[in-house]
Amino acid sequence: MDACELHMNVLKCALPLLIAISPVTALAQKTSDALQQATRVQLQAKLAQLNSDLTRAKAEQLLILQEQASIIRGRLHKGDFQVGDRFVIVLRQDTVRSDTLIVRDSLRVAVLNLPEFSVFGVLRSELEEKLSAHVGRFLRNAAVRATLLTRVSVTGAVERPGFYYAGPDRPINDLLTSAGGPAVEADLSRMTVSRVGKKILSGNAAKRAVEDGSTLEALNIQSGDTVHVPLKRKLNWQLIIQLSFITMSLLFAMLQFIQWYYGRDQA
Asked: pTM of the entire structure?
């Protein structure tokens, strides 16, 4: 067996495996997205179900179930928050105070003038409850409300590309407005929303979301997603002129050659 034949056999064996594995991460992520606001009890129940399913799963399902179980175990242990995440806290006591908290490298946040609060191991669904308990250790009769902000990268044909934060109840239009609005040459009909390099919203659906003012929550836009506004397609007139000139030059050269060729025969 020569090297070429060996290479082809390896590809034949590997191709079915690659096809089987390619949707694993996407399917596991989709399941995780559906459980973003799940409670700890719900996640534990889901993990128990997955562990049970793994004992009798078919080969093509095994990788997907293992990936889903790994994501949930990570959330139960480390929580949902990452460095740079932000949320707004409103504290009602004798007066109403509010602040925007930023998760630092230590996974801690400074809560007003109180001791720091750790978000390690805290789920999204637990944030308000655990924050209330933390504040209650130092302040009496204090009511706490927390709203997690969604961190989204806005790129492309906008005035100020960059990272922006918005509440889940805000329309996607607000993100574009925060970025200075679409540029004159922006093409909103081709706007896309992507997650880890994969498009989750594009084409007519994205255009309709902007027109309807759909909220980030309704569109399932999460922290880390990217909203990209492309430029309108334009004709490159300079290239067209150059190609036309080259084409005309070739035609002229061909005519000259034909004229020379037949003129030679007549001579």
From this structure: 0.66
